Amino acid sequence: MKGQPITPPSMDHYYMGIAIAVRERANCQGTRVGALIVKGNRIVSTGYNGTPSGMTNCLDGGCKRCASREIQRGSGYDLCICVHAEQNALLSAARFGISVEGATMYTTSRPCFGCTKELLQAKVPEVVYLHEWAHSDERWQEEYEMLQEEIQLRRYAMKDPQEDWALRRGLHNALFEREKA
Ligand SMILES: [Zn+2]
Ligand SMILES: [Zn+2]
Predict the structure, then answer these.
(1) pTM score, whole prediction
(2) Suppose 45 and one of 37, 124, 164, 166 were both cysteines; which one would form an S-S bond, judging by CB atoms 3.0 to 4.6 Å apart?
(3) Helix ranges, 82-136 (H)
């Protein structure tokens, strides 16, 4: 309404909303993820998940691991040719010569093992995530948490309008389950 003050969103809300928008370009049969790197209150890099550029997209069957029904969610990443959103954000920064040391990453998914160690080694000390992630084999949970203790990690929960699509729930999953039967 006219004249009504609009409360600006918190920075977490603002950046996570942008990470959700970045995720719209994700091209993966697995979980769809969007990520941002923020430094000095500026977005310096973004990424979403999918196969390396120039290769057949994951949704078109470009990644055998993602298309396989034998591999459980949250596992087999060493066989996956999809580049994770967090990796793509780090790699774009590398490609364009942007320092990420001391930056904050916003990502729509809690980073996996691989992304966590890469963030650590790139000296990104803080990560804010939206959805939980866990390895399919809970025996690895302890080591995962130990690795993540090395970064300042926190969850920022907000409404995610495309949650079912991003986490492969609902219709997409129903189709997936039917295909599997
Ligand atoms: Zn994929
Ligand atoms: Zn990852």
Answers:
(1) 0.88
(2) 37
(3) 85-95, 113-121
